Amino acid sequence: MSLQSDHRIGKHAMLLLLSEDECNMPDCWKSCKGKVGTMDSQKIIAAIETAAKNNGIVDGDIYRETHALYHAIIEALHGITRGQLSIGSVLRTVGLRFSIVRGNPYEKQQEGEWIAVALYGTIGAPIKGLEHETMGLGINHI
Fold first, then answer.
1. Which domains does the chain have, with CATH numbers?
2. Family per UniProt (predicted)?
3. Over the stretch 47-66, which tens digit does the pLDDT of each residue have?
């Protein structure tokens, strides 16, 4: 089992997120981008899940797909919150852009599909100008 060097799903998710243009992804992969700003981590999860379902990245009727997405989101949230998932309860707010990428990063098709969630934006006290940049990435198998 080896990753294809041009099929790094996390790298593609980050490039898609940070680029103004669409990034060059394998044709068989699915992706989308969105934005969310909140003091509630549940709203971040809901925004990403809604975007994934509305753009056909996951099928909301198939548990393993939404479950894999959920774990990728939680892993990415750990990155932006430095391991502490609390935001509003500790008086922090976020303004984030996100990307979601689904595909098979391996040479063998039998390895199946994976999903990556990338987050980039700001986090800080709910006072304009007191935030700093933050970034997170979560990858999970479907």
1. 9-19+28-141 (3.40.1510.10)
2. Belongs to the HutP family.
3. 999 999 999 999 999 999 99
